[in-house]
């Protein structure tokens, strides 16, 4: 029986968020402002042969329910494991390390690198974070510049700021 990958879209105040997940792990999260669902599906299909892709409502899958709870204000809702297979060891170490950052708090790129075992690897950590396939579940939005500024976020600094504000008790990002 082929592995089933569920693909879901969650409507947020920032735009559509797409997620692909198996029963046990999050494979990919595309934060707003994101591409079209068709592009996300094509990328998800390209990542894995021998799998069946199903479009489901977010309420039908644990990953979707967790993301909706998180965007609704429960900063601790994202407990599902991300699938970090296929990543280079340092990238995997960085994404694993940043999962330890409490919601609403931040680390610098240097802190992320040090936590991944490479105290001088801030630039390499930045590259790993830039390629993060499982945003939110590996919370790259919690990484800031050495001077405390918001920097380097693929989905744009307004999205990064909105996620940090949400975690600090800000307004929900779900569309009602």
Question: How would you describe the overall organization of this protein?
Answer:
There is one protein chain. With 176 residues, this protein is α/β, with parallel strands linked by helices. Helices cover 33% and strands 19% of the residues. It has helices at residues 37-47, 62-71, 89-98, 109-115, 122-130, 157-167, and strands spanning 3-12, 15-21, 25-30, 51-55, 81-82, 107-108, 143-144. Strand 1 and strand 2 form a beta hairpin. Helix 3 packs across helix 5 and helix 4 (109-115) packs across helix 5 (122-130). It is globular and about 40 Å long.
Write the layout of secondary structure elements.
Layout: E1 3-12, E2 15-21, E3 25-30, H1 37-47, E4 51-55, H2 62-71, E5 81-82, H3 89-98, E6 107-108, H4 109-115, H5 122-130, E7 143-144, H6 157-167
Helix pairs in contact: 3-5, 4-5
Comma- or semicolon-separated keywords:
five-stranded mixed sheet; two-stranded parallel sheet; alpha/beta; 33% helix; 176 residues
Give a short summary of the structure.
The protein has helices at 37-47, 62-71, 89-98, 109-115, 122-130, 157-167, and strands at 3-12, 15-21, 25-30, 51-55, 81-82, 107-108, 143-144.
Per DSSP, what share of the residues sits in E-state strands of 2 or more residues?
Answer: 15-25%
In angstroms, what is the radius of gyration?
Answer: 16 Å
**Helix count from the secondary structure assignment:** 6
Q: Give the number of DSSP strands.
A: 7
Give the termini separation: 37 Å
Outline the biggest β-sheet. 5 strands, mixed
Spatial ordering of strands, largest sheet: 4-1-2-3-5
Topology as a string of helices (H) and strands (E) = EEEHEHEHEHHEH
Proportion of helical residues: 25-40%
């Amino acid at each position: 029986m082929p592995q089933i990958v569920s693909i879901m879209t969650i409507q947020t105040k920032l735009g559509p968020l797409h997620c692909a997940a198996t029963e046990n792990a999050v494979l990919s999260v595309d934060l707003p402002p994101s591409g079209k669902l068709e592009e996300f599906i094509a990328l998800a299909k390209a990542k894995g042969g021998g799998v069946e892709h199903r479009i489901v409502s977010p309420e039908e899958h644990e990953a979707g329910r967790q993301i909706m709870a998180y965007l609704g204000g429960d900063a601790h809702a994202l407990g599902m494991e991300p699938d970090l297979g296929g990543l280079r060891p340092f990238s995997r170490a960085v994404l694993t390390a940043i999962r330890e950052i409490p919601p609403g708090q931040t680390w610098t790129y240097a802190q992320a690198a040090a936590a991944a075992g490479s105290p001088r690897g801030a630039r390499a950590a930045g590259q790993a974070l830039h390629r993060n396939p499982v945003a939110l579940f590996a919370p790259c939005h919690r990484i800031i510049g050495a001077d405390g500024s918001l920097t380097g976020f693929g989905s744009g600094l307004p999205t990064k700021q909105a996620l940090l504000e949400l975690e600090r008790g800000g307004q929900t990002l779900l569309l009602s």
